[in-house]
């Protein structure tokens, strides 16, 4: 009975988060009210507040939910097993394909997080803690285990690898720079993997 109740509560929370997304995208963080979120989610205010004590908690939960999903999709255990060249190529291709194929509202939500970071720095920090930090740690740990790569600073190289791909995605998609700075994903990935693997010969 307890498991059923917990599952029902989790489903209700997801319903609220799903309903909150379009409100935040339409009005921004500051101008979105809990009343509108309740209406958009199809729940009463009492139900809304029983799951999320305030707007900040709800927004943080939405960011955490999205970040956790992305981490599991891109950096799950199955993607971190195998020889370095294949693992790095798989990670790079998966990261770019997942981010670039996201529905428009997901990219819009990322823009919202960035735009609100000046006034509410604690909000994007939720995203950093639940996606960027564990992603960098997972890749850094992989480099540390594979000593044949001869990487002296695994954390820095993990940041370079992931940061290069994120920068590519931002300039190409979010900032609409594909025509200004054209480059294929394959070319970028080939060069990035080569630069990391060539450390084995040093």
Unreliable spans are none
Count of DSSP E strands?
A: 0
Q: What is the level-2 CATH architecture name of the largest domain?
A: Orthogonal Bundle
Q: Structural class of the helix and strand makeup?
A: mainly alpha
pLDDT average, as an integer? 87
- Name the helicity range: over 70%
Shape: elongated
- Nearest-angstrom radius of gyration? 20 Å
Description:
This protein has two domains: 53 residues, Homeodomain-like (Arc Repressor Mutant, subunit A, Orthogonal Bundle); 146 residues, Orthogonal Bundle (Tetracycline Repressor, domain 2). The chain has nine helices and no strands. The protein is mainly α and 202 residues long. The N and C termini lie far apart (60 Å). The mean pLDDT is 87.
List the helices and strands and how they pair.
Blueprint: H1 2-27, H2 34-41, H3 45-51, H4 55-75, H5 84-100, H6 104-116, H7 122-145, H8 154-174, H9 185-197
Helix pairs in contact: 1-2, 1-4, 1-6, 4-5, 4-7, 5-8, 5-9, 7-8, 8-9
Describe the structure concisely:
This protein has 202 residues and is mostly helical.
List keywords for this structure.
single chain, 202 residues, mainly alpha, Arc Repressor Mutant, subunit A, Tetracycline Repressor, domain 2, 2 domains, 9 helices, 74% helix
